[in-house]
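ok, trying the design again with the full structure, not the truncated one.
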């Protein structure tokens, strides 16, 4: 088992929304976020441990199992995803430069608001819906996904600590079957400059699916 401990993405903002604005319901909302643990732990397993192409990936890589022959091909796919997302935001918010700037700030966790979180969360959902078609076309991708979720079964839930106006997290993922084949180490500084923002999107967008983020954006119905 590999133990992961650190700050929750956007932890200080989530603290404000959950603890300061909803003090009576904050503990309940944190508990309710556990319904999103399983997909997030599966994502983190692929990103950090079960990645078939990279030493440290993005979480998307399992969708290309059985379809791409090399890490370089998958890297090209990821850069296309990132650039497509940037171009899409530019088209959608062509006349809203301030909001585009807020989206960039949220991506790099410089500053965040609910509208920016919602836009990135929607974008992540749309990308995943499109990539799931690969699972239906590729038996190896489907098997990889099933095995990833099987390994998530029985893992302890994500634990949270409230520290100095911030959320910290502790969770575990299995690493017994870490791939033995040589994998690519992606160094953003070695990418061409025009690809670095695209890689930043592909690498960071998964955090908009964090259970506490989803709990803030999609509270359960009363």
């Amino acid at each position: 088992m590999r133990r992961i401990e650190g700050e929750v993405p956007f932890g200080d903002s989530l603290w404000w929304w959950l603890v300061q604005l909803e003090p009576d319901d904050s503990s309940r909302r944190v508990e309710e976020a556990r319904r999103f643990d399983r997909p997030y732990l599966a994502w983190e397993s692929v990103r950090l441990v079960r990645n078939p192409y990279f030493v440290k990936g993005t979480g998307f890589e399992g969708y290309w199992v059985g379809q791409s022959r090399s890490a370089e091909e998958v890297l090209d796919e990821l850069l296309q995803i990132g650039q497509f997302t940037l171009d899409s935001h530019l088209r959608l918010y062509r006349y809203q430069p301030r909001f585009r700037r807020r989206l960039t700030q949220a991506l790099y966790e410089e500053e965040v608001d609910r509208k920016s979180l919602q836009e990135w969360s929607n974008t992540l959902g749309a990308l995943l819906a499109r990539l799931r078609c690969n699972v239906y076309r590729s038996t190896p991708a489907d098997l990889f996904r099933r095995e990833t979720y099987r390994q998530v079964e029985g893992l302890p839930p994500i634990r949270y600590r409230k520290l100095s106006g911030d959320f910290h997290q502790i969770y575990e993922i299995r690493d017994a079957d870490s791939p033995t084949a040589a994998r690519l180490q992606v160094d953003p500084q070695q990418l061409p400059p025009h690809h670095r923002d695209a890689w930043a999107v592909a690498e960071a967008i998964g955090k908009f699916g964090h259970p506490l983020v989803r709990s803030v954006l999609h509270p359960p119905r009363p």
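Keeping the full-length input from now on. The first helix runs from residue 11 to 20.
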